[in-house]
Structures are given as structure tokens and as C-alpha cells.
Specification:
- The chain is α/β, with parallel strands linked by helices.
- The protein has one domain: Rossmann fold (3-Layer(aba) Sandwich).
- The protein has eight helices and nine strands.
- It has a seven-stranded mixed beta sheet with strand order 3-2-1-4-5-9-6, with helices on both faces. The protein has a two-stranded antiparallel sheet with strand order 7-8.
- Helix 2 runs parallel beside helix 8.
- The radius of gyration is 18 Å and the shape is globular.
Length: 272
């Protein structure tokens, strides 16, 4: 596969370590096709689409996370399950040479063009010790934990704990809260019930707490229900203005459609 010398082929890095293939039933295989990479990328960068509008709000919340943390430009940072590089590109505006980690070569092909200064790591860090060892000061993970199966969530959290410095941060997003207006609507239409993954903020807190983290903050966003024409939202500009004002509101937080969770490793790890 063509590369710029920074990427590692799936299964091999320069030290000759092999990546164990994911089982067919794993969430890891759901984004491996070139067509999926293209459609995923189009939605996330289109401000007229729901995902693209959410990304504008998420950047504002990420700005606030970094402002509170007071990071240095020399921080070592990584975006786990980086996909086509939207969060990685954001990190590159604030930090030198961020690392992007994904198992999809098609996703990373798009990320490579968008993030030329990033180190792209192609492989499964939960299966190969040392593939992306860090230590990192910050790891982001967007649109991953909600859809991943429980065993994969646990393995990724264990890798994050082992790869972060003592006061390092994880910033993860969860993009469908069953208590939100959209969540209630979708639950009423699901046949059979429970077929669409959803997670409340309290459940996300418990996931990270059980994984050996202390949760520092949960910030909600994406409150309004919406209608679309094809991929595009009705009234995207007005919706965006309202969502920007509502984002991070602590009173409305339990009813947010999506939320960011900020956590740090807890001394002693799980059970500590």
C-alpha cells in the first residue's frame, strides 16, 4: 500500500509485529470498505448534514476542554479510531505530529491527505502491545464506544489506561442518548425494540469508572429533533446557532442527544 513512511501496514510495523485479525462479528469490521470511508467522510464534513453540524459544536466543546486542561504544544496526543481524520486534523492545529490509529486502510487513505504531519498507525492496538505505546497526554475517541461490543470497549479502555501518562486525559463522545428527544422518537419506532445502540451519560460514566478512570466532566450537545431532505437538514443554519448556545448546558445535559465525556486514569486502576 502506498504511504509516506509514517504508516504501518495492517499486520506489520517496522519491528515486524503481527496484528491479529478481528473476528468477523466485531464492530471493527463495520467501517473497512472504501465506500463506507467515502460516505462517512462526506457526512462528517458537510455542515448541512447532521453529523457535520454536530462536528462544528464538538469543536467548540473540544476548545473548552483544552482551555481548561491548559495543555502544552509538546503534549503527545492520539486519536483512537481516527477514521478519515476529522478529529486528527483538529488535534494537528493544536499539537505537533498527533497520532491517528485505525484498522481501516481506506479510512486512513483519506486521513493521510488531510493530516500530512500526523503519524498514522494502521492496526489493532488492543491485540499488539507496543503498536502505539505512547505515553500520551491526551487520547480522543469519537463515534466508537457506543457501537463497539462490550468486550472491545473493555480492551480499548485497558489500552488507554496503559498508554496514558498519570494525569493524561481521554475525551470520548457518545452520539445517541435514549433520554433525548431523538432517542425517545427512535425508541418508539424500533422494531424489534433495542436494535439501535444508545447510551445514557450515567451508563457512560459507569463504563469509564469500571475501566479504571475518574470522570471529570460530561458535556451534552445536539438537543433539537430534526428532519432531513436526503442527507441535509431543514434549517441547518438556525439549528446550528441554537445548538451552539445550548451545548454544555449542565441543566439540560441529561437530555442531550450526544455528549462528550472527559476522564483521567484513576490511581490503582479498576477497583482502585
Amino acid at each position: 500500500m502506498p504511504g509516506d513512511g509514517r504508516e504501518w501496514e495492517l499486520g506489520v510495523r517496522d519491528r515486524g509485529k503481527h496484528v491479529t485479525p478481528a473476528p468477523p462479528s466485531s464492530y471493527r469490521e463495520s467501517h473497512l470498505s472504501a465506500a463506507k470511508a467515502r460516505s462517512y467522510d462526506e457526512d462528517l464534513w458537510d455542515p448541512g448534514a447532521a453529523k457535520g453540524l454536530d462536528w462544528l459544536v464538538e469543536q467548540r466543546l473540544l476548545d473548552d476542554v483544552l482551555r481548561r486542561a491548559g495543555p502544552a504544544a509538546t503534549w503527545s496526543v492520539a486519536d483512537f479510531a481516527c477514521g478519515t481524520g476529522r478529529v486528527l486534523e483538529y488535534l494537528g492545529r493544536h499539537f505537533d505530529a498527533p497520532s491517528g490509529i485505525d484498522i481501516s486502510p481506506d479510512m486512513l487513505a483519506l486521513a493521510r491527505a488531510r493530516c500530512p504531519d500526523a503519524e498514522l498507525i494502521l492496526g489493532d492496538v488492543t491485540a499488539v502491545p507496543g503498536l502505539a505505546p505512547g505515553p500520551f497526554d491526551l487520547i480522543t475517541a469519537f463515534r466508537f464506544f457506543l457501537n463497539a461490543e462490550p468486550s472491545l470497549r473493555r480492551r480499548v479502555l485497558a489500552w488507554m489506561r496503559g498508554s496514558l501518562r498519570a494525569r493524561g486525559l481521554v475525551v470520548a463522545n457518545f452520539h445517541l442518548n435514549p433520554a433525548s428527544l431523538r432517542g425517545v422518537y427512535l425508541r418508539s419506532r424500533m422494531r424489534p425494540p433495542g436494535t439501535l445502540p444508545m447510551m445514557r451519560a450515567a451508563e457512560a460514566r459507569r463504563l469509564f469508572t469500571d475501566g479504571g478512570f475518574s470522570v471529570l466532566r460530561v458535556a451534552g450537545y445536539s438537543y433539537l429533533p430534526y428532519r432531513r431532505v436526503g442527507r441535509h437538514l431543514h434549517g441547518a443554519a438556525t439549528r446550528g446557532s441554537v445548538e451552539m448556545r445550548l451545548a454544555g448546558n449542565p441543566v439540560l445535559g441529561p437530555y442531550a442527544g450526544s455528549f462528550l465525556l472527559v476522564a483521567t486514569p484513576r490511581p490503582g486502576g479498576p477497583g482502585g
